Amino acid sequence: MIQSIDRAAKILGLLQGSRRMGITEMAAALDLPPSTVHGIVKSLQSHGLVAQQPSGNRYVLGPTLLKLSSVYLDTLDVRARSMRWMHELSSRTGLATRLGVELFGEVIVIHHDRRPDGTEQMPETGVTIPSHASAMGKVLLAYDAAHATDVLSRPLTALTAETTTDPDRMREEFVRVRRDALGFENEEAVIGESSVAAPICSDEGEVIAAIAVVLPATEWPPSDAVLNDLREAARNVSRELGAPAWPPRLPAS
User: What is the pLDDT of residues 33-45, one digit of tens each?
Assistant: First the structure.
């Protein structure tokens, strides 16, 4: 490991989630001399990876990261293969759709298709959601033992009064996810919003992503027609990726 790159990556990690931090704060968090952190931050700033706020001595993530992330998202095969089916799913159900993958123990939305009703909606691509409070996250956890072990080894944060925070209850949900190839959450991440997700498989048969429909909590539970359309979309994307079968094969355990 190259020490300077490792330290730079840790600084970028400290600033994720729209955080604003000064040199002294970053130095304390990383247990490094302020002079060392200052030099790394100034190098990152020269490349647009970090930006200094106009007033004050705090730093935020820079615009270059947005450009890099857009390139990264566009090169993801699963995203490219999913976009057509997600748009069709939104059109058939009248609901917004999300595509998510695991990132550092959370789910990152790598594509978002808005509801086709013409209402103003916030773009969600790039948003992260704690895995345990997300229908997509529950799907990814259910089929990845290492991911599940990592997430459940830490306290589960309650985002709303409905968030499941009991590890045993989460494990019970994983069994149902693997049985039905569907994950559910009802107001666990955002009050008034619910979602249901299905797994997407790679050409090796592994679950690499999850596709979800998002519906108002007032319309919960989703209809059988919505569930069938969601499963069909997940099957079609998996087929395009070369998956040998769908639903996914159950883990050996």
Answer: 999 999 999 999 9
